[in-house]
Amino acid sequence: MKLVWRRAVEARGLLLAAAIAALVAVALVTGLSDYNRRAVDAGQRALLAAAPAEERSLLVSGSGGRDAEEYADRDRAVRAQFTDGLGGVPVTVAAARYGTGRELTGDLGAARVGDDPMFATLGTLADLPAHAELTSGTWPAPGSTPLQVTLPEKVAGLLGLRTGDRVPLFDRSSERAGEVRIAGTWRPRDPAEAYWRLAPGVGEGDGGDASHGPFALDPADFARTFPGSSSASWLVEPNLGTVEPSRLASVKGAVAAISEKIPEATGLGSSAQSVTSMDRLIDRLGRADLVGRSALLTPLLLIVVLGGYALVLVAALLNEDRRPQTALLRARGAARGQLAGLAVREATLVVAPAVLLAPPLA
Q: Where are the transmembrane segments (predicted)?
């Protein structure tokens, strides 16, 4: 090893040039790779943020069953399908129940057009206060008389309703009149959130003309008001922002497989509907990752070629400088293996510092 150090000191200028060339090449490759990874991640996040809710989630809808017990069974069965997520990707599941057959019979002003009946969508949405903020009033108090509900701010404005108003309703199934009281109004914290697929027209987009709402009830009040048949929806949203590109195909396959088996596995039967455009988003994420990584190839090859060329030039100069020493060592009986060992150890002195220092510097 002493001979290696002595030879290195004698040719310190050329060895320093070789070390600098290796250091610069490794630093550029490492830095460019890290930059590309960050750019691809940022592009993936931007793509997810810009995607519509239908591409970021799966909406499962169907009959809520004949009573609360049957709904509970179906709710557990649906959630069980996503215990392991989608293709191993964690998901969140939010549920909503809806009641039908309540006609709005009061003075609705400009909202009423012609003699066509207008209906109120009464429902209960899981964790609504976490996704919406009150603009007036309070959240419904269970067990109140008349029944307390909250209403989206823009729906209340359309119907000309304010907090404290009583809204007459006609139950077409029992042919009985009743009323509800507006306890408060609210608006979405994030209208683009996939959660609002549970309440069409509340988030981005407009509601229909014939049915308005949701008139959101407390879950206990909903169970008492609609003890029989109701409809239900489950919103399944995977955390695609944490998915490695190599796992996107498994997520896409899991969505298709679960959508196919949900009707039989959950008891929803022919009423089951699974609506999603997640496959489009997954395809775009895959293409974006491929394009991002492909864009890295050309500059990496250029750096490798230029760095290699610089090292070859320095090695040629060093070889020419070492020619007399090599001839002398051979004359003194040094074998080819010994000379090769000296060359390897000298190369290690050049490459090792570059490999160790370049990543932190990059």
A: 296-318, 339-358
Average pLDDT over residues 53-78: 93
| CA pair distance 270, 273, nearest whole angstrom | 8
| Top-confidence residue, 259 or 24 | 259
Q: Which amino acid would we find at residue 309?
A: Y
Same domain, 105 and 249: yes
Among residues 54, 60, 92, which one has the least CA distance to residue 282?
54
Write down the residue that tokens 């002398």 correspond to.
328
- pLDDT above 60: residue 4: no
What average pLDDT does the structure give for the chain?
Answer: 82
137 and 30 within one domain: no
Domain that holds residue 24: 2-42+288-361
Name the percent of the chain lying above pLDDT 90: 45
- Are 111 and 213 in a shared domain? yes
Hey, what long-range contacts does 163-171 have (CB within 8 A, 24 or more apart)?
163/136, 163/137, 164/137, 167/104, 167/106, 167/120, 167/215, 168/104, 168/105, 168/106, 169/102, 169/103, 169/104, 169/105, 169/120, 170/102, 170/103, 170/105, 171/101, 171/102
- Asked if residue 250 and residue 228 are part of one domain, the reply reads yes
Nearest CA among 227, 276, 277 for reference residue 61 = 276
Q: Which residues, in sequence order, are bridge partners of residue 237?
A: 92
pTM of the entire structure?
Answer: 0.76
| SS3 at position 263 | helix
Q: How many domains does one find in the chain?
A: 2
More confident residue, 23 or 343: 23
- 125: β partners: 96
